[in-house]
Amino acid sequence: MSGKHVIEVKELRKSFGQNQVVDRISFKVESGDVFGFLGPNGAGKTTSMRMMLGLVSPDEGTVAINGYDIGKNFLKAISRVGAIVETPKFYPYLSGRQNLQQIANLHSQVNSMKIDEVLDMVGLSARSDEKVGIYSLGMKQRLGIARALLNDPNVIFLDEPTNGLDPQGMKEIREMICQLAMEKDITFFISTHLLHEVEQTCNKVAILNKGKLITQGTVNELLGKENEHVEIRTPDAYKASNVLKDIGYVKSVKPGDDGLEVELEKGRSWELNRLLVSHNIIVHYLLPKNQSLEQFFIELTEGGKRIA
Amino acid sequence: MLNLIKNEIIKLTANKKLYVGMFIILIVNLLPLLEKLAGTIVDIPISGQSFPLYMLSTYLNLVMPIFISVLIADMVTDEYANGLLTLSLIHPISRAKLLKAKVLALIMITALLMIYAMIVGLILGSTIFGWGEHFLFRDVNAEITYAFSTGAGLMITLGSYAVSIIPLIAFAMVIMFLALRFNSGGALTGTSIGIIIFFSFIGEIAEGLRPFLINNYFTLFKDVLLSKDFSQAGTALVVLGAYTIMPFTIGLHYFTRKDIVY
Ligand SMILES: Nc1ncnc2c1ncn2[C@@H]1O[C@H](COP(=O)(O)OP(=O)(O)O)[C@@H](O)[C@H]1O
Ligand SMILES: [Mg+2]
Predict the structure, then answer these.
(1) In this structure, which residue's CA is closest to atom 16 in ligand 1?
(2) How many A from CA of A209 to the centre of ligand 1?
(3) Atom 26 in ligand 1: which residue has the minimum CA distance?
(4) SS3 of residue A282 by DSSP
(5) Selection from A264, A271, A305, A304 nearest residue A288 by Cα
(6) Dihedral angle computed from the Cα positions of residues B110, B113, B115 and B121, in that order, rounded to the nearest 10 degrees
(7) Residue A301 to residue A41: CA distance in whole angstroms
(8) Whether the CB of A14 sits within 6 Å of ligand 1
C-alpha cells in the first residue's frame, strides 16, 4: 500500500456513444472518511462507481484503491473492498445465508462463522434461512450490507443506499454506516442524490453534475458551517465592495441582484453592518442567504429536471 | 476455481428449470409409446435394452440443445441483465476463471442429464416395451438394423451417450458466445431455438453447406460406434472442435473486457 489514500481517482472519463457521462473527474478519499458523492439522477454517479470497481473500463484516467490500480492490479485492488452497486441484487431462489455463501466462496479466508457474524451484525440471523425472494427491501438492503462486510473490507462503496426505503429504514441504514465507520474503522464512499444524507453521514463531499465535478471539500466547509452568506441591498455596491475587499473575516464578495452577495465568517454580520454604515454606505437590507451548498444543489437538481 | 464451479452447480440445482427439464425428458420418453399405439413405428424394433439408444437422436437434435440454451440463458444472460454478475465481479476472482467455471459446471450438468436420460430410457423403455431378447437398433428412416448381444449393446449405448457430450459442448459454446452479448434470457432462448431450426432447414435446402453445419454432427456417436466410419468421425471432430474453440476464445476475450453496466 502506498500513501494514506484509500481511493485515488484521476481524470476519469467515460462516454457511452456520443454521450459524455463522466468527464475527467479527480478526487481522493482518505482513510476514515465517509465520502459523499452527491449529484442528481443521471449525473454519472453509478457509472463512476462501476469504473472505480473495475466493472466498466474508463476511456481515460485511473483509479487506485488501497494503492493498487484497479485496471492493472484488479485482484489486489479489489481484495479489501465491499460494495453495493445500485439496489442490492440477490438470487431470489436461494436463502439469505446461501446468497452470502456464494460470495464467501470467492474468498479463501471467509468461513461460515463469518457469515453468522455478519448476519448477526445486521440483525438477520433469525430469517437467514428463508429465500431472499420474500425479503422486504429493507431486509435486502441489510443483507446487502452484510454481504459487503463478509471479506472484512477497509472500504465500502454504497450506491444510493437509502433509495426506496421508508424514513425508519433510512435512519437505520445511516446509523449503521456511522457505527461501522467509527467502530470498525471502515472508509465509506457513498453516492446519493440527497443533500441531507450527506449532511447527516458524511465528512467530505464531492458534487457531480452532468459528469463533471463541480466542487469538493469537507462538508463543514461546503455547507457553510464555518462561513455564512448574506445579501447586501445597497445602491453603493461599488463603494461597498472596495471597503470589504481587504477585510479578514470577509471570504468573498460577488455582485448580487440589488447590491452584493458576501460570504463571511459565521457571526460577524453585525460587524459587517457597522463597517458599511461607518463608511457612509446606505444599507437598505442585510439579508441572510440559504446555506450556499444547499441552494446550489437545489438549483442543480432543478436544472437537471428541466433538461430531463 | 473449484469454489466457483461449486457456486454454479448450487445455483443450477436450486433453479427449478433443471427439474422442469428433467420432467420434459421423462415425457419425451413416452412419445414412442404414442407412436407405437398410433402405428407409425411398427417396423422398427424397440425394446427396453435398446430404447435409450433409440431416443438419443431426439435428445441430441432437439431436447438437449433447447435445454442447454435455457440453462445458458440463466447462467450468463439473465445473470448479467439482473445485475447478479456484478456481485461476483467485485471480488478478487478473474473474469476468465468465472466464465471457465460456468462452462465446466454446464458440462457437468449436461453429462449428468445425459446419464439421467439414459437411465430413464432404460426404465421406461423396459416397462413399456419389455426388456427384449436381443439388442436390436434401427434408426427412423434408416436401412440397417444393428444387432448386438445385450452386454455389447449396453456398452455401445453408454459410449454413445458419452461421445454425444462432444457435439453438445460445441453447441453450448456457440450459444454461450451469443449469451454474452444478449441482455435478455428470453430473447437468447428464442434465438437459440431459431438457430436450431434454421440450421436443419439450411441443411435440407443446401446440401453443400451441410459439412459446415454443427447440427450435421450432433449424431457423432453413429459414426464412432455404429457405422464405424472413422474418416467421417474425424471430420466431425475437426468441425466440432472449431465450433468449440472459436466461440469460446472470442467469447472469453470479449467477456474480460465487457462493460458490466447492470
Ligand atoms: N449502459 C449505458 N449505456 C448508455 N448510457 C448510459 C448507460 N449507463 C448510464 N448511461 C447514461 O449515463 C448517464 C449517467 O448515468 P448514471 O451513471 O446511472 O447516473 P446516476 O447514477 O448519477 O444517476 C445517464 O444519462 C444515463 O442515461
Ligand atoms: Mg445511479
Answers:
(1) A44
(2) 12
(3) A42
(4) coil
(5) A264
(6) -140
(7) 8
(8) no
Separation of alpha carbons A74 and B98, rounded Å:
14
Q: How many CA atoms lie within 13 A of B18 on its CB side?
A: 18
Query: What pTM did the predictor assign?
Result: 0.87
Check A106 against B88: CB less than 8 A apart: yes
Report whether residue B37 contacts ligand 1, using a CB cutoff of 6 Å.
no
Residue A174 is classified by DSSP as H
Contact present, B34 and B134 (Cβ < 8 Å): no
CB pairs under 8 A between A and B: 75
Does the beta carbon of A45 lie inside 6 Å of ligand 1? yes
- The count of C-alpha atoms lying within 13 angstroms of the C-alpha of A238, restricted to the half-sphere facing its C-beta, is 0
| Ion ligand 2, residue ranges at CB < 5 A | A 45-46
In tens digits, what is the pLDDT along chain B, a chain of 262 residues?
Answer: 899 999 999 999 998 999 999 999 999 988 887 887 777 766 677 888 999 999 999 999 999 999 999 999 999 999 999 999 999 999 999 999 999 999 999 999 999 999 999 999 999 999 988 898 889 988 777 788 898 999 999 999 999 999 999 999 999 999 999 999 999 999 999 999 999 888 888 888 888 888 899 999 999 999 999 989 999 999 999 999 999 999 999 999 999 999 999 9
- Classify strands A34-38 and A204-209 as parallel, antiparallel or unpaired: parallel
Angstrom distance (rounded) from CA A119 to CA A145: 9
- Closest protein CA for atom 12 of ligand 1: A21
**Which strand (E) or helix (H) includes residue A250?**
strand A250-256
Alpha helices in B63-217 (DSSP H): 64-72, 79-81, 85-89, 95-129, 150-163, 165-179, 185-205
* C-alpha cell read off for A270: 453585525
* Grid cell 467455471 in the structure block, residue: B101
Domains of chain B, by residue range, sit at 2-255
Helix (H) / strand (E) element for B256: namely helix B230-257
Q: HSE, CB side, 13 Å, CA atoms: give it for residue B52.
A: 26
Q: What is the DSSP letter of A289?
A: P
In this prediction the ipTM stands at: 0.89
Only one residue has cell 451417450, namely B161
CB distance A83–B92 less than 8 Å?
no
Residues B221 and B108 sit within 8 Å (Cβ to Cβ): no
Q: Which residues in chain A have their CB less than 8 angstroms from residue B84's CB?
A: 89-91
Cα(B258)–Cα(B80) distance, rounded to whole angstroms?
11
Residue B260 C-beta-side C-alpha neighbours within 13 Å: 27
Give residues with Cβ within 8 angstroms of B241, minimum separation 6. B170
Please answer yes or no on whether A89 and B257 come within 8 Å at the CB atom: no
Q: Which residues contact B36 (CB under 8 A, 6 or more apart)?
A: B42, B46, B129
Put simply, the answer to whether B87 touches A56 (Cβ < 8 Å) is no
- From CA A193, how far away is CA A191, in angstroms rounded? 7
**Does the CB atom of residue B261 touch ligand 1 within 6 A?**
yes
Three cell numbers at A74?
A: 484488479
